[in-house]
Amino acid sequence: MKLFHAPGSPYSRITRMAVIELDLQDRVAVEEATLRDPASVLLPFNPVGRVPSLVLADGTTITETTPVLMMLDALVPPERRLLPGADRPRALAAYGRVLGMMDGIAVWNRELRRPEHERSPGVIALEALRAVRVADALERDAATGVFTQRDAAWFALVSLLGYCERRHTIFAWRLARPALAALFDAAQSRPSVAQTVPPAGPAR
Ligand SMILES: N[C@@H](CCC(=O)N[C@@H](CS)C(=O)NCC(=O)O)C(=O)O
């Protein structure tokens, strides 16, 4: 199996961390792909051109973070799986909440990558407000024990905050959010986290 990723992508980082956490390095080769590039090695497998993309032995390509995690989870015994099931609704809610914030941050960051005259102040204001709102909810989640298990919600949260820390520094996510900051800082020594730190982006 082959997992296509991009080093700066917070979505594909979740799946890269999962490969390490689930001890699947022998079964899943991880390959970097360029994005928004007509010559990308990814396009013959995934016409959408997004990462993460997981190519199975028969060529079937699973795309989008959650289906990729489902596939990786299926390779290990049930007790080791990362995605929370319906029996853990709070964890499932937190996972969805983190992915929702990731989507918003991705939109905000994309606006900032445009030349200044092409940026939409309305979109930026909306996404900045959304990010504050969700980060405050996640802070409450972290403070009330929602992220105590090392599950997909936890890895997604670490990836999201890592993206903000390294590539979306305009968002002061740590401010007045001590539970999130403590969780993130403590996570850094975990091998799957330390081995997948995204490169620093331009200051924005
Ligand atoms: N909803 C997707 C989002 C994946 C995504 O947006 N990936 C970005 C990198 S962070 C990408 O591949 N972008 C390339 C493009 O938009 O062409 C998921 O859950 O995996």
From TrEMBL:
Q: What Pfam family is a match, any one?
A: GST_N_3
What positions does the domain GST N-terminal occupy?
Answer: 1-80
Q: Which InterPro entries match?
A: Glutathione_S-Trfase_N, Thioredoxin-like_sf
Q: Which PROSITE patterns match?
A: GST_NTER
Q: Which domain of life is it from?
A: Bacteria
Q: What is this protein called?
A: GST N-terminal domain-containing protein
Q: Which organism is it from?
A: Roseomonas fluvialis
Kindly list the organism's lineage. Answer: Bacteria, Pseudomonadati, Pseudomonadota, Alphaproteobacteria, Acetobacterales
